[in-house]
Amino acid sequence: MTFDSDELPPQATVLVVDDYRDIVNILTLLLTSHGMNVLQAYSGAECLELVRTHPVDLVLLDVMMPDMDGLAVCAALKRISPALPIILMTADMTIREAARHLDVSGYIVKPFKPADLLARIRTHLHWYTEN
After folding, report:
1. Residue 61, class by beta-carbon neighbours within 10 Å (0-12 exposed, 13-18 middle, 19+ buried)?
2. Is residue 38 one of the residues assigned to a domain?
3. How many domains does the chain have?
4. Does residue 111 have a cis peptide bond before it, meaning omega lies within 30 degrees of 0?
């Protein structure tokens, strides 16, 4: 698959995971306005079920969630699909060390600029679709 480096891959599917529905809805609007398919999950368990049952190209994963935090979800996702790109979303700058140990694709600190998030997604989807 080839595409311009300034574009997002066509028909790529991003799973947005956050316990705040408003954040999920805002991210869904942003991503769909750039041609992405979006799946939504509001908990770690829901995220894991969707990854098992639907093709997903990238996961945007909140770190601070009740019941199962994003780091535990990330570890479970890596057991299901080791190459799946995961971008952690967090307000906690100390997450870098934990992210490094979990082999995530990256993280973005909240609040973030939409252009920064899109650039990060674009980078990891290009890598994922080329390998």
Report:
1. buried
2. yes
3. 1
4. yes
Q: What is the pLDDT of residue 4?
A: 42
Residue 6 has pLDDT above 60, yes or no: no
Please, where are the H alpha helices in 1-131? Answer: 21-32, 44-53, 70-80, 95-102, 114-130
Question: Does 104 or 130 have the greater pLDDT score?
Answer: 104
86 lies in some domain: yes
Residue 20 in tokens = 């705040």
Structural tokens at position 48: 């894991």
Distance CA 25, CA 7 (A): 22
pLDDT of residue 79: 94
d(CA 60, CA 22): 15
- Three-class secondary structure of residue 121 per DSSP: helix
pLDDT of residue 3: 38
